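Reopening this ticket.

The earlier resolution said the output was attached, but the attachment link was broken on my side. Pasting everything inline this time so it's all in one place.
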Amino acid sequence: MDEQEYLDKAQEILRIKTPLMDKEALCAFVDKYLKKKNDYLDVCREKGSPLYLFDQLALRSKAQEFYRAFKSRISQVSFFYAMKSNNHPVMIETLVEEGYGIDVSSAEELRCAVKYNPKSVIFSGPGKTDFELEFACHHSKVVTVLLDSFGELDRLQKVACRKDIKIKAGVRLMNEENGLWRKFGVPLDKLDCFFGKAKECSHVELCGLQFHSSWNLDANKQIAFLERLGKAFLQMDKSVVQEIDFVDVGGGYWPAQGEWMQPSSTPEGKLKQCLVPQMSEGMDHRCLPSISIEEFAQDLADALDQHIFKYIDCDIYLEPGRWISHEVMHILLEVIDKKDKDVVVTDGGTNMIGWERFEIDYFPVINLSQPSLEEKPCMVFGSLCTPHDIWGFSYFGKGIEVGDVLMIPTQGSYTYSLRQNFIKLLPKSAVMNNSLIELWSDR
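Inline output:
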């Protein structure tokens, strides 16, 4: 691109505005948690701060909602919770009780999952070591290995042969043949060849396939790949296609609230930050809309009828993670220092969630001690020795003072699993159920 093309592109980015969040919807979201503020304050008094707070009732509700949406539209469907999205023990235990299988991506995750006796486990992820394949074979009665390469197929055959067992497997398909996603799976045009190679592997029962796309605000990426898959089936030997017992559509379902963003993380915001680095975040929160889980289910059911079921009678596997875990964990903090009217420091750092999330994503900081639906500008920092340790650039409340208890709601996905011992110790976690009486800590 020449200089003028860059300028034209920049002008186009600045012209297209990421939608603003609906303020009424945001206030309704905050109000839902303020109505239960006394419960949260009681938990904080009993367990201390900072704290991870899991809502087991909400977890069961989300699991059942996801199940109903798909089961009512796809009869032969199975569910595997993607453990990487939140690996707290209560997540695994509760979802196994709700009839979910578990999707793991390492021997360590598999070790944790089998403690809760799931009826089935999907072992996915690239670069599985021989030790991990041996561990999968050790649990071959419940584990299906999703293979990412021809080399991994060879190694699984050798490992299973040594153990004198036969293990169920599927092959992951590459849904983007360029860029970072090449590390996952084999190209779709190699599917026929992969099944041919598997026939030489007497200890591997290759009987399914998987593909995955992430950050799905709607089902378009999944539908597009199902269409490609249907066309590939037309070109394949029919006897090979009939060996496919399951198609795993993966996960990546975005919660219905949509993607909430800080102004600076939008395309136009990033460009403005390059020109004016000291630009204030402000309170013009942005939101990319997502479809409901019922719409996801209907769109995928229609695509499966159109592109897959006319060729094979197979089971459908789903791997929800973010959608299940998003709303079921909250973070509670206490203000320990007020440096100015619009600068406070809390007792918990963002090592609790493992990354500088709130420089990119927006979530309301709710002052439970001084409740209000009015949002005020304030830099709400954590207590780590880094300026990037920030929970938000505003809060909902009448005011904010030392000793106030703050809540960051709906932090269940890709936070707890990424927590890290950085500068400060990790906090305790607590689980509340319907009555708020049964509390426990895993520390």
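Reporter confirms the inline version is readable. The chain is about 35% helix and 20% strand. The mean pLDDT is 93.
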